[in-house]
Amino acid sequence: MKYLDEFRDGKAARKLSAEIKSFVTKSWQIMEICGGQTHSILKYSIEEFLPEEITLIHGPGCPVCVTPLELIDKAIAISQQQDVIFTSFGDMLRVPGSKHDLLSIKAKGGNVKMVYSPLDAVKIAENNPEKNVVFFAVGFETTAPANAMSVIEAKRRRIKNYSILCSHVLVPPAIEALLSSKNNNIQGFLAAGHVCTVMGYHEYFPLSEKYNVPIVVTGFEPIDILQGILLTVKQLEDGKFEVQNQYSRVVTKEGNIAAQKLLEEVFERTDRKWRGIGNIPSSGFKLIDEYSDYDAEKIFKVKNIETEESLLCIAGEVLQGIKKPIECSAFGKECTPERPLGAPMVSTEGACAAYFHYGKVKKEKSIIANP
Amino acid sequence: MCLAVPGKVVSIDESNPELKMAKVNFSGVSKEVCIQWLPDVKIGDYVLVHVGFALNKVDEKDAEETLRILREMGDIEEENS
Question: Is the pTM of this model over 0.80?
Answer without folding.
Answer: yes
